[in-house]
Each structure stands twice: as C-alpha cells, then as structure tokens.
Amino acid sequence: MARRLTLLDDDEFAAVCARIDAGSTDRGDLRAATKHTLALLQRKAPGTSVEVRVPPFAAAQVIEGQHHTRGNPPAVVETDPQTWIALARGRMSWVDAKVKASGERSDLSALLPLTDV
C-alpha cells in the first residue's frame, strides 16, 4: 500500500515550480514536486481504489471505492514525473497527456488541476 505523502510549504513548492518552469530537470525538484502534488491528490480524493504511479518517485492510492490489500488495485494510472507535474499544475490537459490508465475511475480529469502554482 502506498504511504501518505507530505506536502511542501507554499514557498518551497513555488520555488521548486519556478526552477522547473525555468527548464530545470533536477531530480530532487522533480521528486519534490511529484510527491507534493500526489499528496494534494490524496487530500482531494482520499481512498484506495485507484493507484497513481509516477515512477521512480512515488505512488499514491486515491478515490473512494473498492478496497484492495494485495496485488494491483482495481484501477491504475501511470505517467512520468514531468507529465504528472504538468497535469497537477494545469499546464497540460488529461486528453493531451501521455498516461497509462486502466480500470474504473482511472480518468482523473475531474480532479485536475490540483494547484495553480
């Protein structure tokens, strides 16, 4: 089971986003932004029926529904960190994103964006 992720403070997240917007592909910034935005998603849509995977940095279980304890959850969403961060920030639409999504409730478009930073 994916563990709870912690949020960055607002100033720290804004600084990370500014570096990403400036073209930085620093692994630490990508990791921090990925974990922060997944934590925002966990707060917005708590649950365990959809697993959102952003390898290699993190995964989060979200959205109420069927609970699972072993193996793959009923729905899985997977994408790369750059795409996830762009989706979470409203810089890319769900339709335009390269995302692997399967199972019920795997369309996260109604939950995005998660931040306006």
Descriptive report:
The chain is built from three helices and four strands. The chain is of the alpha+beta class. It has one domain: Nonspecific Lipid-transfer Protein, Chain A. Strand 1 and strand 2 form a beta hairpin. The termini are far apart.
Q: How would the global form be characterised? A: globular
| Main structural class | alpha+beta
How would you characterize the largest beta sheet?
4 strands, mixed
Can you give the mean pLDDT?
A: 92
CATH topology: Nonspecific Lipid-transfer Protein, Chain A
What is the total domain count? 1
| pLDDT < 50 stretches | none
Work out the helicity level.
25-40%
Order of strands, widest sheet: 2-1-3-4
Summarize the structure.
The chain is of the alpha+beta class.
Give the arrangement of secondary structure elements:
Elements lengths: L9 H12 L5 H18 L5 E5 L3 E5 L12 E4 L2 H8 L11 E3 L15
Parallel strand pairs: 1-3
Antiparallel strand pairs: 1-2, 3-4
Helix pairs in contact: 1-2, 2-3
